[in-house]
Prior knowledge:
alpha/beta
Amino acid sequence: MHRPWYSYDRGPIQSKVASFFRNAEIAIRPGANWLGSLQEIVPKYDTVRSMASIFRDRLLEGKTAFVTGGGSGIGQRMAERFAEHGAQVMLVGRKQEKLDAAAAGIRSSNGTAETCALDVRDYPAVQAAMQKTRHRFGEIDILVCGAAGNFPAPVTGMSANAFKSVIDIDLIGTFNTCRASYEHLRKPGASVISISASHATMPIAYQAHVCAAKAGVDLLTRTLAIEWGPVGIRANCITPGPTDDTEGMRRLAPTPEVRKKVEAAVPLGRFGTKDELADLALFLCSDAAAYITGAVYVCDGGQSLVRSSLSLSEKH
């Protein structure tokens, strides 16, 4: 008689999934339409994901993270994930009210978070924030450069100042954050993560400013991997694809029609989630990535492997 796979003893993560199937009375047998049954019961990917984490608890216990762009979007979710795993987090961004809300959320889950409102284009302000973090928490173990700016515009419809503003926020801001952090980073052991974009390697119409900025971010980060490697500091990039519930996608895909076109251009057929990017960042900060530096991790559902047929001009 066939014995369902979930009846065997397994590890804690597999046991949770097995329990799900057992309770739902779904026996997985060769040829059975188990996927359809699972989709009926758990239609959302995040529901399956929430069953268990692949990471051990308190993975970052006692470590300190400094996150620019930490008051919203991807940066906020990364900061939340670090705090969930025991890190003390300094949230950095331009709007104090957003930072306060993000910090309150972390504290409500028994995490530790402080805030510092600044513009990453202001180098002395970034220096002061680093000093504040060192005084409050000690050496910095994790540095995330996530501050960014974007707006769709053709080159001929963009002023020199508009182009420069994105270069200053994305590229100069990343340099400022990294440069000001150096004396405060743990040596050896610190992990630097820059948030890049597929724009760094793929020309995209109406995004010349971001393409130029992110190409610089990629090579800056890889250069840091060479220069800072001898003291034990690792530096890597994360390149997100279209990520749901972010300001960037609300601007670039503001209508259901455009969203569908974006999804159609992704081989995996869906938007990514902030949780997936946060987990990638958590991996890069962990001991499992101790020999990884100078890498660009693309988390985009395969979008960069194909040339998108989507043109931002179709919005207008």
